[in-house]
Amino acid sequence: MKPEFDYSIDLKNKNILIIMPKFYAYQSKMKEDLVARGANVHFYDEEPEKTKFLILKNMESIFHRKNIFEKFNRKLTSKILAEMPAGGYDYFLVIRGNVLNERTIHDIKLRALKSTGKSIYYSWDSFANMRHKGQLGKLFDWRGTFDSVDAANSDMGYELLPLFYSDEFDAERLEPQTDYKYDYVSVSAFFPFRYRYFKAFKKANPDKKLCLKIFLSPSVYRGKKLKDPKLVKNLDMDIISFEPFTPETIRDMCKNSKAVLDLAHEKQQGLTMRTMETLGIRRKLVTNNIYLRDYEFYNEDNDLILTDLAAKADAAEASGDYSAFILPDSSWLDKPYAVNEPLRKQYSIHAWIDNLFK
Fold it and tell me: Which of 23, 158, 219, 296 has most Cβ atoms within 10 angstroms of its Cβ?
């Protein structure tokens, strides 16, 4: 029987306004939870034209144009006010808010949010990667971040709220796995550092069943071919895919593996969504994110942290010795997964939404 989540926050008949970027299928997962609680949810995309917005950000950086998103903010505010439900919103949630300005936040709070309503800000990017560097969050009643370092070092009153796993990655909702197709699986988007390390792992582990896949968008490939042809010359098509992977495909690949290899961007401090999904599905994790140790679910029986991969890759490519990239064998892989169910459930999408709206 499909397990039910015991919601601790009552959102029945609450009007909720959410401004956030489209991020894979996570927006729809959030909506499913909120609708199941009886909420009336209105989503607005923070960056509806991604290519155009990327160009505008580059123009802002080059020409130092401070108000380059002013027109978008005015149109977004007008649209929200024209479409808001009678009586206004009970909750106003912004996730990231990278192109929003202070006037938009003030106008929506003043004209669309009920006097008894609550404004919430959540950063699922590090402050250093955002235009407003986290300052936008100070305009809200509550502010949280997925980044443990930003939460600890910021003086802006941010609380740490890690990301989540969705129901598709909930081990309780899946049939128990008895046979595994792979020892290690990794599915992610193309970055040169990631492709470089995947090749190294492939050379170092011929005795293991690896499924290392990187999605390279054809448009990105064409751009790289023009700007940096050496980077995309003689690509290993056992690793590269020009077709994106569906969430279901990724879930099934992880389910059929003993462990997940997750290589985050080397400057990333917060935990990736793949880390949370690995926790949800009860799979072992190998990652280069040193901040995993900051979290209470970190367990050496389940988790392995890799360090100094760039230096190790330099040495391996110079010497031909890739032994630094050898992954753990069956002595670690086949050791029973250390289960802590109450702790694991605290990282479901349902618990995440409870914490967001508490």
Answer: 158
Q: In what order do the strands lie in the sheet with 182-189?
A: 240-241, 210-215, 182-189, 257-262, 284-287, 303-305
pLDDT at 1: 32
Query: Could you write out the three-class secondary structure of 304-323?
Result: EECCCHHHHHHHHHHHCCCH
**Residue 184: predicted pLDDT:** 98
Sign of dihedral through CA atoms 132, 133, 136, 138? Answer: negative
**DSSP codes, 210-253:** EEEEEE--HHHHHHHHHH-TTTTTT--TTTEESSPPPHHHHHHH
Sequence-distant (6+) residues with CB within 8 A of 281 are 165, 169, 170, 171, 174, 251, 254, 255
Helices (H) and strands (E) in the chain, counts: 13, 12
| Residues present in the chain in total | 358
- Spatial distance between the Cα atoms of 235 and 45, rounded to a whole number of angstroms: 35
Domains and their CATH numbers in the chain = 15-161 (3.40.50), 168-338 (3.40.50)
Rounded Cα distance, 187 and 240, in Å: 10
Q: Give bridge partners of residue 285 from the DSSP assignment.
A: 260, 303
pLDDT in tens, 247-274: 889 999 999 999 999 999 877 889 999 9
Q: Is 299 exposed, middle or buried (0-12, 13-18, 19+ CB in 10 A)?
A: middle
Q: Which two tokens stand for residue 349?
A: 């999408």
- List C-alpha distances in Å: 48 to 30, 42, 96, 98, 331: 18, 15, 14, 13, 48
Nearest CA-CA partner of 171 in 341, 355, 354: 341
Contact 145, 270 (CB under 8 A): yes
**Residue 347 near residue 280 (C-beta atoms within 8 A):** yes
User: Using N-to-C axis directions, what is the helix angle for 309-319 and 192-204, rounded to 10°?
Assistant: 60
Contact by Cβ (8 Å): 169, 251: yes
| CA dist., res. 302 & res. 279, Å (int) | 9
